[in-house]
Structures are given as structure tokens and as C-alpha cells.
Amino acid sequence: MVKKVILDVDTGSDDAVAIMFAALHPGTELLGVTTVNGNVPLVNTTDNSLRVLDHIGAGEVGVHAGLSRPLVRHDFPAPKRFVRDSDRDMHGTELPLPAPTSRAHPLGAVEYIVQTARALPGEVTLVPVGPLSNIAAALAVAPDLVELVPEVVVMGGAHQFGNETPAAEFNIWADPEAADMVLSAGFAKLTLVPLDATHQALVSLADVERLAGLGTPAGEAAAKLVQRRISAYAAAGATGRDDAAPVHDALCTAYLVRPEVISTRPVHVTVETRGDRTVGRTVMDLRSGTTAVPNCDVAFGADAALFNQLLLETFAHRRGQAGSEP
Ligand code: BDR
Ligand code: CA
Q1: Does 321 fall in a domain?
Q2: Which of these, 66, 55, 62, lies nearest to 31 by C-alpha position?
Q3: Helix, strand, or coil here: 176?
Q4: Which of the residues 33, 49, 104, 269 has the least number of beta carbons within 10 Å of its own beta carbon?
Q5: What does the mean pLDDT of the chain come to?
Q6: For 165-191, how does the pLDDT look when each residue is reduced to its tens digit (9 = 90+)?
């Protein structure tokens, strides 16, 4: 069954790969893209999302701009782990794709999410791969979202190691109060894809060559974006390898069509919203014999070979091309 998807993004190089995946895979119908402040300011996450969709000929997919800052915090913490546009920045303020010809839809992200979920009850999978500000705001105005949306797939969190801080992964750290709201909202199924999984699904320079060799707009863009990620991770020494990098957000879209690309277990997860050094930490109750009721299926493993195969198969498609199920 084709999954109807709203992708909530802070585009971002890995968000861009996720957008192309959801727009091109025959197993997903990308209903709309909603943008949020995160990797870069909202104006850029919106512009970058439009660039990506235009580049692959999917300019008809609506892009809806959302929150330009976290729910509660006024001092938006811009990513501190690299200087923007430096050799350690795996995104860049503007993605290296032509300026968009499409424009953002006049309907805002929060309104779009609520209206679409109400129009298609039980049918929309929400896939937030940036800070959770839009989803939390949608929950605040429409608590019925919890009943309307059968599954939420979140890229965020970390158990073994953080990236923004030793304790916290960026998406959760960038709006911890929003993340806490979403994780504790009571969705029937919430799949959390943390760094523990995404760092097992690395894309290598050899994979980049294969993507470039596809000769499609998506293959070429993915190759360029992932190549930059690999250089930035190597400059930062962030993976212990200089020839491969995680493409976090795209692992979530791959999961939509091939759930076995990750392995999960049910866990009770809360978000630290207070501690100076630990803010944004996803606290996972992995104690044996715990009585805490799981609220997430947390991915602790990922199949890198399958992930790369899915990227390659999906980006062989051109928009509008009648393709067989990859
Ligand atoms: C997450 O943070 C962002 O930098 C990426 O786009 C991804 O969603 C990884 O921590
Ligand atoms: Ca992201």
C-alpha cells in the first residue's frame, strides 16, 4: 500500500535526500513538505526544500513554512558544532542546486498538517526530521492529531552518543520542549530513529560514485550532497572514517517502504528539558524489568547495505517516469 506522507524538514543536506526519496519512491506519496527552523533559518529551510523539489521536477508538491524559532526558547540555539558554511558544515546555508522557481504555499505548516490529517483520518504518516516545533504546535491547536495520525517517524535522539552536545542529538536539542510534547503525546505508533541507528547506515564515497553514475537529477544531487557530508564529517573526525557519513533523515524515509532497514525495540523515552549540560537528551529506559510503558519504537540497528540499495534504486527514477516498484 502506498504511504501518504507529510515530511517535516529543516533542509539541510540529509533532509534533501529524504525529500527526494519520498517524492520518487513508488511506495510513498509525498502529500506535502513542511519546513521548520533548524539546520539553517526557516527562510533557507523553505528555499532549500523548494530547490530540491524543483530540481527533480516535483515542484507541484506544496511547501508550507512553519515555525521560525523553538516553541519556548527565545535564544534559539543555532548549531554550535560547526561554523556555518565552513568545511565542517555538512549542509551549507544554500544547497548547491539552482534557485527555485516554485514558491512556498500560502498555507502555513501547522495549519496544513492539521487540515490534511483531518481530511485523511488514519491515512497520513508524519515524518519529522528536524526540530519538532511544527508538530508540537500542531498538537497544541489540534490534540486530535494523536488519533488521526497512525504513525509518526522521528529522526532524533541518541542513546550512546550525542552530536550537538555529548548528551544530545541536534533535532531534540534544538527544541527540547517540543520534542517532549511529541514523544509524550500518546501517538499509537511513534518510531524514533536516533543517531545510534543512523550511524550504522553510512553512505560511502563508493556509494556516492554509484549515485552519480545514475545520471538522473536525484542521483546527481544526492551524490553532490552526500559528498559534502563525507568531507564535513571527515574534517570533524565525527565517524572515525574519512570516506563515509550518515544521511540521517533519509533512513526514516527508507524505513517507510522497507521497515526492515532498521531494527527497533519498544522503549519508554523522555526528553531532558532542564539540565544545563544534558538538555535535549533522550532518556531511554532500558532497564531490564522496568515497568515504564514504552511510548516509542526506538531504532538501535540499521542495515547499511539495504539502505544504500534503496537509495540507488529510488534515485534511478525520474519524476513522472512510469517505474516498477524498486
Ligand atoms: C539531524 O540534525 C540535522 O543536522 C540533520 O538534518 C538531522 O535531521 C541529525 O542530528
Ligand atoms: Ca534534518
Answers
A1: no
A2: 62
A3: helix
A4: 104
A5: 94
A6: 999 999 999 999 999 999 999 999 999
Ligand nearest to the CA of 39: 1
With H, G, I as helix, E, B as strand and everything else as coil, classify residue 248: helix
For residues 242-248, give the mean pLDDT. 96
Q: Is residue 323 part of a domain?
A: no
Q: Between vectors from CA 13 to CA 12 and to CA 17, what angle results, nearest 5°? A: 115
Q: pTM for this one?
A: 0.96
Number of domains within the chain: 1
3-state secondary structure of 25: coil
Query: For residue 48, is it left (φ>0), alpha (ψ between -120 and 50) or beta?
Result: alpha
Phi, psi dihedrals of residue 262, rounded to the nearest 5°: -125, 160
Is there an atom of ligand 1 within 6 Å of 129 CB? yes
* CATH assignment at residue 75: 3.90.245.10
Q: List the catalytic residues.
A: 10
How far apart (Å, rounded) are the C-alpha atoms in residues 241 and 238? 8
Q: Is 248 in the pocket of ligand 1 (CB under 6 A)?
A: yes
* Ligand 1 neighbour 14 (Cβ under 6 A): yes
Does 23 map to a domain?
yes
Task: Report CA(320)–ligand 2 centroid distance (Å).
Answer: 26
